[in-house]
Write a structure and sequence with these properties.
With 231 residues, the protein is an all-alpha fold. Helices cover 81% and strands 0% of the residues. The N and C termini lie far apart (45 Å).
Length: 231
């Protein structure tokens, strides 16, 4: 009994650590993206999107726990495991906060922090900001699932798993779609906390969930139809 309890505690601790590391990587990817956007002018956005995709590549390669990646598991997760979603989000947010704190005391602070605040401030000030955040996050969630599932299907088609992981991320980052975890970096740099910001985060979380489960739900339906057809 003690062995099982210890094993469960170690597994939970590992889950938390992998959530923190995923958030840390998102923070690093976001920081490099902001730096590129500031220094490279018109090409900065594309270069920044590519640099950000490397963060997701590391997360998937080392099996870190990212909220938007875990969303794809919801249709098969089971109700008893849904607690993992809020826990991983909080772990990711804490990991991003660590990155933001380190950046704040680094030589990059004067460039990256204003750039990050400039990214999120117009989104908060826009009309119909809630539906904009939700809609943008749906598109992001869809692309994130494509990236997470890329290594599963790309080799079967003779395609590079690395390209399958990175290309959807480059698209979402270049388009500026709302990633609920990545947005935390911009909010930390903005240095404000309000009910509006919390609602914005909630809208982006819900949008990521809706967009992220679309492909898994269709995959389940496809499997069910094929199973019925083979009888």
């Amino acid at each position: 009994m003690k062995y099982e309890t210890k094993k469960s505690a170690e597994a939970f601790l590992l889950f938390i650590l992998m959530s923190l590391l995923a958030g840390f990587m998102i923070g690093l990817g976001g920081t490099s993206s902001l730096l590129a956007a500031n220094l490279l002018g018109a090409w900065g956005k594309l270069v920044g999107a590519t640099l950000f995709s490397l963060g997701i590549f590391v997360i998937i390669s080392f099996e870190m726990k990212l909220f938007t990646g875990m969303v794809a598991e919801i249709p098969t997760m089971g109700a008893k495991n849904l607690w993992r979603l809020p826990v991983v989000f909080l772990g990711n947010a804490a990991g991003v906060a660590i990155t933001a704190l380190l950046v704040r005391f680094s030589p990059l602070a004067d460039i990256v922090i204003p750039q990050g605040a400039a990214v999120i401030a117009p989104k908060l000030a826009a009309e119909s900001w809630a539906i904009r955040s939700f809609s943008s996050a749906v598109l992001c969630g869809f692309l994130i699932t494509l990236s997470v599932w890329g290594p599963r299907y790309a080799p079967k088609k003779g395609l590079s798993a690395s390209v399958a992981v990175m290309l959807p991320i480059i698209v979402f980052a270049f388009c500026g779609f709302d990633h609920s975890v990545a947005n935390m970096l911009y909010f930390y740099f903005l240095g404000e906390c309000s009910g509006k910001i919390l609602l914005y985060i909630l809208c982006s979380v819900l949008g990521n969930v809706v967009g992220g489960v679309l492909i898994p739900l269709v995959a389940l339906l496809k499997t069910k139809v094929e199973a019925q057809s083979s009888r």
